[in-house]
Amino acid sequence: MFYTEKTDNDCGPIYIREKGKLRCVNEAVRIEDTPSGRSKPFRLFGRGFSVQLRIESEVRASTSTKRKEHFVFTYNEEGSLRYSVKSLFNISLLFIAENVQHVDSLMGFPEQMAERLFVAAEAKQKFSDPENGSRALQLFSEAYGDLVLKSLCLRNRFLLVSEKLEEIKVFHGLQSLDLFGCKLGDSHEILQHLCSEALSSLIQLFLGDNNISNRGLQKLTAPARVMKRGLANLQLLDLSYNPISEEAVGYLSCFPNLRGLDISETNMELTTSLHQVLHNKLGFVHSEVLLQDFCHSHCKTQGWAEQIINQWETHILELSKLKTDLQREKTDALRFYGRHKFVRDTLKNKRKRTLDSGIGVSSDSGPPEKRPSSSSITVEDWDLLNSY
């Protein structure tokens, strides 16, 4: 809101632009007209002119919070707090990180700048946002591929695979994927994703101990066998500890670059015929010792998103522990009430046996026992009173 206060002091000439031309809205005071003959100091606005901006309190609070990010606060040798303004580049980087979900594409954006932008977005927990987290990850993955995540190790982390499947599908350019012991079976959704274009760069794939049968392997290799699509660059494949037979070897001939295969602890018997089939169809020879390429120590998560995967796992473990604790409390409560009922039934049966045995017993040496009064409180009455 703008307002002016009328003062006795005259202002200098004021011009406004109308239709591209300047027009004077007040006449300049000439020197001859002044009593003293001296010119008055030029003042564009009167002394009483002021400006008041009306800003909502919520907007003001959020704006002041964001503006604090533009400063770097430090202490000098005397212990006084000092601050300096961040560079325009850092301020712009924070702004883009805060609104990364609204960016259309990062194609062509320099990798060094993109890594700093990724770190800034991670610090603001943009990838943990349930609504925009997947979109933000996809934005980086489509532009930078294996720089975001080159290797992903999910060995024995079946909970992580189930809970974060949609986020895992976002990563493009993976070269190594370890799904050993993830309880996939023959119909898991991720098996269909393995032959998609998003994982065409995959070189190493570990699917051991997943209860995959011949049928599951047939479905996995169908896109590569029929449409020549998916896993074209696959070189190492681990199928150990799965119930597959010699028939499954025929499904693997669709991988032209395959140079290593682990089929230990399967239903295949290492016979001469199996050696002949592997040699004729795949060009493989049997190795008596485990190849170093199939050693688990070589598999680890690598890329910009490494910390994000660790955060997912920590969060899921906390949720799993919480569910376990709630289930344990429920079980303990059931056991408690079960014991109470057991004790109550035991007391009722003991009381009944005592009354039954007292009815048929008589003694001449002492006075006769007093018969229980009809007004005495029974066990059922006590239970009723305790229930209130």
TrEMBL record:
<keyword id="KW-0433">Leucine-rich repeat</keyword>
<dbReference type="InterPro" id="IPR032675">
    <property type="entry name" value="LRR_dom_sf"/>
</dbReference>
<keyword id="KW-0677">Repeat</keyword>
<protein>
    <recommendedName>
        <fullName>Leucine-rich repeat-containing protein 42</fullName>
    </recommendedName>
</protein>
<dbReference type="InterPro" id="IPR039631">
    <property type="entry name" value="LRRC42"/>
</dbReference>
<feature type="region of interest" description="Disordered">
    <location>
        <begin position="355"/>
        <end position="377"/>
    </location>
</feature>
